[in-house]
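Let us work through a complete example step by step.
Step 1: write down the sequence.
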Amino acid sequence: MSASSERSAPAAPHTPGTPAAAPADSPSVEIPVLLPADLHARPAGQIAQTTARFAAAALLQYGERTANAASVLAVMSLGATRGRTVIVRAQGPDAQEAAAALAEVLATAT
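Step 2: predict the structure and record it as tokens.
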């Protein structure tokens, strides 16, 4: 067997704007949040900044739409409005802390 046939396939590159895949056995958290205000640019920016502090991959779900919490434009494109529920999902080594921090940003958005 040649050396080239023994090598494993290269890892797929990470696409900016999408969360890196967390290992399947890493902790996963889901927190629903009732929005006190529409999800506009300011809270979307706060969500992206908060997400950047954690290693966990974080997603927001609103209805059938899902967005990478690290992307301001993706979060804004959800179109989430006041009085509706957004689900925070995080997976990774600090998923609990990340989800709690993102839920706090959403719960206090003005």
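Step 3: interpret the result. The chain has one domain: 26-107.
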